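Structure tokens please, single chain.
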Amino acid sequence: MRNRKNMIWQGLLLIFVTAVVVSGANFVLADEGACQYCGMKKAMYGHSWVTIEHEDGSVTGVCSVHCAAIDMALNIDKSVKKISVGDYNTKKQIDADTAHWVIGGNKMGVMTARAKWAFAGKESADDFMKQNGGRPATFAEVMKAAFEDMYEDTLMIQKKRKMKKM
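Here you go.
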């Protein structure tokens, strides 16, 4: 009788642990893990990290606007509910639509030659442009630029990875 109770408790514990691991897996991938397209870690790319929330409840975390564009193209049938992005200075997630964006400048972008940076405040974006160049943009302009840059950026990434292997 005692063995049977222990087996039941062990079974329940196993179910509980499995449920915690499974339910926490999406959170870890979207919030703390690595970009599913290029493998870059959020810990190192919080200043450009993009979180995409879909209407179906799924959440995807990627390292950059470049990888966000890849995700949107690959998941064309998944409606987007909300997109947040890392503030360049604080690394805190901010709403991508209301962020103050800067395209270009002399700072190399993440996964792109033409940088696309988000700032929570207009003053921060203006300060960045004074020091580094670039121009102000809306989120729609940023995403359009990401798709326009996709071919050249992909070739650049492939070339860099090839050089690393050598």
